[in-house]
Amino acid sequence: MRNLLLAGVCTAALMGNPALADDIKQGGEMTVTYKDDVSTLDPAIGYDWQNWSMIKSLFDGLMDYVPGTTELRPDLAESYEISEDGKIFTFKLRKGVKFHNGRELTAQDVKYSIERVVNPATQSPGAGFFATIKGVEEASAGKGGELSGITVQDPHTIRFELTRPDATFLHVMALNFAHVVPKEEVEKHGADFGKNPVGSGAFKLAEWTLGQRLVFERFTDYWNEGLPKLDRITFEVGQEPVVALLRLQNGEIDVPGDGIPPAKFVEVTNDPNFKDLIIRGGQLHTGYVTMNVKMAPFDKVEVRKAVNMAINKDRILRIINGRAVAANQPLPPSMPGYAKDYAGYAYDPEGAKKLLEQAGLGDGFSTELYVMNTDPQPRIAQAIQQDLKAIGITASIKSLAQANVIAAGGEENQAPMIWSGGMAWIADFPDPSNFYGPILGCGGAVPGGWNWSWYCNEELDKKAAEADAIADPAKAAEREALWRDIYLKIMEDAPWAPIFNEERFTIRSERIGGDDKLFVDPVHIPVHYDQVYAKDVQ
């Protein structure tokens, strides 16, 4: 085994950001609004964009990301080692890290936290992420609480043994589900731990009045010296987004957590008073049209390519007021493995017609396009319908509730085409494999699965397994190149027509500072609360 990375404290140098330099004073408050209350602050349970960054501010994991980026770095881990075969990960923990209750965090707490997540009694939606750890299969079947693949070697050293090499394991250790909790607090509060969270994060919960507000206060014994910058964050819930925007204009709040309301988007983005306060950033998201390769005529690659060439993506972007960028491949631009030099299929209706002729369908054909029935998705589907009509494809729109569209996609011969908007893929972690297995790999092309194109290329599945067996971070470039080739081969087969990569727009008050990336953080969605600061601290 060899040491692969020594950790440094997350400082301004990591961000390359003068906003986090030493002259930024400690103190100040921030007020954030949300329409809905928070469901839970238990890292084993929480799995929505609203509580994601809150949980990350209350808890820590072995790994995290450089603020505002998708670059992995150690967090509670001081260093880590990976065995030559990529199956054993050994982490050295920082000493002196404390939970909010004052107790020191140890490797035993890490072991307990992971075993709690995979225990069926916890009902964690993240249990599947840990499937490669030895013993998880038995634990998931209720055959034992402890995992044979996790060994506490000493109070500050923990070892994970996997069933196979897994290059995504470091990312899994950065997920909220892997955040560390103190056993005594979980047992004390039981099912209410999510309302009484105790972690080791930069903030601690000071108040939670259901339906009204949550208050986070700075944890003064936080291990990462100098963080957080703010002393207090108040999350006011039950705030309609339009009202929140008015309150921002009146100087009453600092960040409307639900973003800029669609009905006010054009007005706000054209208002010179907001020019320097609006923040735009990419997400790990792709919206796409699937074509079921098991159903004629989409079993012909010429037809699938024709659909790619028929859709006017610029017109669709106008429908959503430019809140996205056109996509030409499955991966979003901020994802490792994205092919920057790939042009994709150009908008070319005449070329699309020629491809249909080559497929023996010069007279066109009829099909169905499934779509979720929530605005703006039906309007987007109508634009796609018109584009397809222009090349001879008559697509009737089936506008259904989200659950019904998902169910139809999971039936092998039911949905010829699906516009994925409102249901499209947002990565759980910034690794190209997370865009493959569930939605493009053979494993997802099963009844009830999310591979709605039913595309299964066994050769690419083998290459994907090879890529994920490259667990050494020093070979990351080699692994990314493999994934790049996999996705470009997928585009040759064209089971999807990628449409756009949605971007997040938010707005902040003049009182709050920090690099723009912190407010549209691709991992700490939506805001990296630990790093932002108040400008008016004396």
UniProtKB/TrEMBL annotation:
Extent of the signal sequence: 1-21
Keyword Transport: yes
Cellular compartments annotated: Periplasm
GO cellular component annotations of the record: ATP-binding cassette (ABC) transporter complex; outer membrane-bounded periplasmic space
Chief location category: periplasm
Keywords: Signal, Transport
Highest taxon, organism lineage: Bacteria
One Pfam family hit: SBP_bac_5
Gene3D superfamilies: Dipeptide-binding Protein, Domain 3 (3.10.105.10), Periplasmic binding protein-like II (3.40.190.10)
Record GO biological process: peptide transport
Domain Solute-binding protein family: 71-444
Entry GO MF terms: peptide transmembrane transporter activity
Family, per entry: Belongs to the bacterial solute-binding protein 5 family.
The protein, known as: ABC transporter substrate-binding protein
Source organism (scientific name): Rhizobium meliloti (Ensifer meliloti)
